[in-house]
Amino acid sequence: MAQIIIDKQNGELAFRLERFENLNQFDHLQRKNYYSIILLHGSNYTLNVDLSHYELQGNQMIFLSPYQPFMISSKESCSGWLLNFHPDFFCTYRHQNEIETEGILFNNFHGLPHFKISEEALFFNLIDQISKEMDRDSIAQHEVLVAFLKVFLIEAVRQKKEFDKDIVPKFSDSQSEILQNLVDSIENNYCELHSPKEYADALCVSTKTLAKIVKKYLQQTPSFLISNRIIIEAKRELYLTSKPLKQIAANLGYDDEFYFSRFFKKKVGVSPDNYRKTVGFAKLEKL
């Protein structure tokens, strides 16, 4: 049964906790205008996020940003917990210096959107406390739930970092070193360089070689990594500022705001304007 808090100002979901016994609600491609955290237990199941396909086992935690497309399926029995929160309920950007969720749990343009849970006890204890607090409907409920959520996210960041140490390629050969250089180059140049060829030229390799390396280590394409990083920044600017789309597009290296709007909608599933309407805007300016 789901426990839900609705934002009284706009009637939208603010916070949700649900125990599920099967994957029926996840068996089709979907996009939500809020963050999703899924604690999943099962022998074998398949996770699809963006254009990536993951075969997972055991106890996993999955992290999804607003409008990130995903689905989960399995031929076997699976159960777990679903935690949703809207950016208006808890803004990850405002607490980035404390918790470091952005780039580790959410909006990591080259990393995995999941990790294998090493220690469950704290998570389940926090879920129990969150559930009890949602039943109370008492004074300062929002503050208490945010406090629980912060602890939950901090522990998730810690376990995700440890998980990444074991699965991230060790840069001990020339190919993996090229991959690291590509990731760094995209992070530093995504506002100016938009094509795989530009990055291949900068790294002194062929586009074919670059594509093979990205496929080998990340099961992705260079184009996907580049566009994903651009979209992450566009989402951030749309949410945190009141900048007009033309300015955001120009800052990201696009002279034509209408072309950028089509590019954004193709990648995210909604227009920049609808993204602001459903997720929020100018949040940094309203502090």
TrEMBL record:
Keywords: DNA-binding, Transcription, Transcription regulation. It comes from the Bacteria. SUPFAM superfamilies: Homeodomain-like. Coiled coil: none annotated. The keyword Calcium does not apply. GO terms for molecular function: DNA-binding transcription factor activity; sequence-specific DNA binding. InterPro entries: Homeodomain-like_sf (IPR009057), HTH_AraC (IPR018060), Tscrpt_reg_AraC-type_HTH (IPR020449). Residues 180-278 form the HTH araC/xylS-type domain. This is AraC-like DNA-binding protein. It comes from Leeuwenhoekiella polynyae.
